[in-house]
Amino acid sequence: xxxxxxxxxxxxxxxxxxVWSAIFIIVPLLMVAYYAFTDKxxxxxxxxxSGLSRYAKTFGMSLLYAAEATVxxxxxxxxxxxxxxxMKAGAQRMMxxxxxxxxxxxxxxxxxxxxxxxxxxxxxxxxxxxxxIGPVQLINTPGAVVLGMVYxxxxxxxxxxxxxxxxxxxxxxxxxxxxxxxxxxxxRRVIFPMTVPGIISGITMVFVPSVSTxxxxxxxxxxxxxxxxDVIEMQFQSSxxxxxxxxxxxxxxxxxLISLAVMNRFDDSExxxxxx
Amino acid sequence: MxxxxxxxxxxxxxxxxxxxxxxxxxxxxxxxSADYELSLEGEYNKSLAGTTLNVFNWxxxxxxxxxxxxxxxxxxxxxxGIKVNYTTYENNEAMYAKLKSGGVSYDIIIPxxxxxxxxNKEKMLEKLDFSRISNYKYIDPQYKNLYFDPENEYSxxxxxxxxxxxxxxxxxxxxxxxxxxxxxxxYKGDILNFNNPRDAFAISQQFLGFDLNxxxxxxxxxxxxxxxxxxxxxQSYVMDEIFxxxxxxxxxxxxxxxxxxxxxxxxxxxxxFVYPKEGTNIFVDSVxxxxxxxxxxxxxxxxxxxxxxxxxxxxxEYVYYATPNTAVLENDDYSLKGNEYLYPEVYPKVQYFHxxxxxxxxxYEYLWESVKLA
Lengths: 276, 374
Prior knowledge:
The complex is a heterodimer of chains A (about 280) and B (about 375). With about 280 residues, chain A is mainly α. Helix content of chain A is about 75%, strand content about 0%.
């Protein structure tokens, strides 16, 4: 009787969230699927999906760039999070504040400011030409696009890793020392396994937005190399081909899911994928 | 300690923001708008006072009181007591989509030529009552009876522009005369092109000597091929960033409108402009009234008001495109009177965009995608 009542109460409390996610998550997903498998007149078709081989190269490039950005972010973020977690409490707060501070600014402006840094007449090239090195091609290159991704999404890598690192029980580290493990093997065999959940959610949160970005590639890549996000944006914004746009989005979602599933296999800890 | 450090950071940030806003005020010195007495020809009384007029226009396309201009809509409200509800759109297609989707009602829109043609085909425009637009007499006959409104029933020209080649004289020593300059290997990495299919294709079509509105798909193919060829030496596809990139010297060659070039040249005197010999694309944006308008009377009054010599002068000075209003063209106070770029003595060969069939549109959108994917 009592149990029944709490069950009912729980259902009642969760009802708004279920309705919310149904309306704003499930229904839109179904709509994407509907558009992907219909043509402009609303009749069922597989043409949208079968025509996607045209974008194979673009899909590949987007996944590659996003993977590069994710790896670079991880390489930067892991040591940073490690040092942060060993700082004094005040300094830690200061650091996480500094990492979050740029995120208060609009994403578009943050990306745009890189144009003025990387441009031919930009800050870096002005300095370089002062010391006699001619203007270097920085903007409108794949490197600039990856840089933009790393810069924009780095906080999403640092923060989850940092969060799991500060929670590590210091006595475990002492135990590792006492039992004669070297600093490196301590990092490898004690700290690293415990931070895997943080790494996994970090990777997810950097990889997923990177692979579907369109603004960064347009502004820092000069609009000449299209990523899959650009193609999708084009279908909706200028070509008005919602069906094709939905088909690409759907395939992209599946690709992301596969990537994440593959990655999750590496994560055998209990609380894996906390943020997915 | 925790609270203290947070507050400190917050305080620092706020100081910084305040300092910034001061800086902003200081730079943009506000010049009060010229408040001289207007001499108006039409009759403006308060008989429609209290009603609302919904105007849907391009962004930055009417003087709004900034930079010392006259606030046209405010002036109109003062004269007539009609409340002007002013909203803007980014491009013709966005405006069209909004009207098409329904649920909105506008009394005034200012689409471009080909869009007027399309809207007219789809019976989306209301006939204008020219007996109430006495100032229509000021419209240059050159801009009457145009293809999109052959009987002058639906539209009143607002402004006119032509695309030309903007170049930086520091990089491009010899005055170019052809769109071919945009394919010249010498300027690798210095060339910009439009980031939308119609305008980008137009450059390549003109260079190849094609009709901009051709229904011959092989011509579209060839134009697309030419664009792919250009990609190797192109810096980027851009729209409004052209301003910044040309002014900073980041790029040296770009196609854009003469009026915009004049603004760029004010910031970078090294820039020059030429109408290529192959000809160029011209646009005429005209004032129209869409079907379903709620305040037709006020709309007629507003159109007549926009054509008032003094008001049209303000608009021409603000918008910087060529004006179809002869009263302005002859006015000695018009700072761009006889401007060699806006009103060239020898007119270039021009082509209008027409509303192409959806079949062709789908085809060139597809080709454009291929260009971008290449």
